[in-house]
Design goal:
Blueprint: H1 4-32, H2 38-59, H3 75-99, E1 104-107, H4 112-138, H5 140-149, H6 151-165, H7 174-194, H8 197-214, E2 230-234, H9 238-241, H10 251-264
Antiparallel strand pairs: 1-2
Helix pairs in contact: 1-2, 1-5, 2-4, 3-8, 3-10, 4-5, 4-8, 5-6, 6-7, 7-8, 7-10
Length: 278
């Protein structure tokens, strides 16, 4: 265990980051007013997290965003590749929920144009929101913990924080919190193995897009979007499908996230499997 002399400086840095984030967030809410829009909430969280990160990195070694895994080079590839991976993971979970849990779908009103437009807008909104959470949890905090205490502590502590942040979501239960923790570990492994927060942000957004739009279910208990052309006609066994919390509240997600963690531990700097982290 780290001694007191090691803990105090880290707590000081993390506390400073938290205070900066909260101050910027409150200031933006004061200036813009409150809104229940996910686009607004995700945007101010991302801006607050980035501003706090830039300030604290300037103080802590005069570093830039590349230090937390956000270099300009590779941004598009990381986000795009991560989103594809996140959606693939969700499709696996959805297949389990349909096959073993009895989740059923029917057609709904809408057109292909409406479906595509809704998908693009939802993907953008969820990417902003997901990136904000990644910068907040697996940006500077994970970087500091990794540098001082190593990957084990960095993964466990950031996953714990990630779980706590979702602890007040509607319809959350013990299995839902377990799956949120597993998702945090999976995203942490993606961040560490690829060295890129772009990849982690893409996977985060892809997972949310898959659970909220492709599956047409709540995302962590939140109703994000009503996808055209698709409608859930039967909820199936809630213990498997997740019930009102969405896929993240069921055993199907547990199985899928464990498989995703195993895959993420094999990822390398290019986002592929088996390569060594740069």
């Amino acid at each position: 265990m780290p001694d007191r002399k090691e803990i105090t400086p880290i707590l000081g840095r993390l506390s400073g980051f938290g205070v900066l984030f909260f101050a910027v967030l409150v200031s933006m809410v004061f200036l813009t007013g409150m809104s229940e829009s996910l686009a607004w909430q995700g945007s101010i969280q991302l801006v607050a997290a980035l501003v706090a990160t830039l300030v604290i990195l300037r103080v802590d070694g005069k570093r830039g965003l590349a230090a937390i895994g956000l270099p300009v080079r590779g941004a598009f590839r990381g986000v795009a590749g991560g989103m594809v991976l996140g959606i693939v993971i969700t499709v696996v979970v959805l297949a389990i929920a349909v096959g073993a849990g009895g989740l059923r779908y029917t057609g709904d009103e809408g057109t292909l144009v409406e479906y595509g437009a809704t998908a693009l807008w939802t993907a953008l909104v969820l990417l902003v929101a997901g990136t904000g959470e990644e910068v907040l949890v697996r940006g500077y905090p994970l970087t500091v913990l990794l540098e001082r205490w190593g990957p084990g502590a960095a993964l466990l502590l950031t996953s714990l924080v990630f779980t706590v942040l979702h602890g007040a979501n509607p319809h959350v239960g013990a299995l839902g919190l377990l799956n949120i923790a597993l998702a945090g570990l999976m995203l942490g492994f993606v961040r560490l193995r690829t060295g890129s927060l772009w990849w982690a942000s893409g996977v985060h957004a892809g997972w949310n897009l898959g659970t909220g739009f492709v599956s047409d279910l709540p995302v962590s208990g939140l109703d994000v979007v009503d996808a055209p052309l698709v409608e859930v006609s039967a909820g199936g066994m809630a213990v498997i499908t997740g019930g009102d919390f969405g896929l993240e509240g069921g055993v199907a997600a547990t199985v899928g996230l464990v498989l995703a963690i195993l895959f993420a531990t094999r990822m390398g700097a290019s986002g592929g499997v088996g390569a060594e982290t740069a």
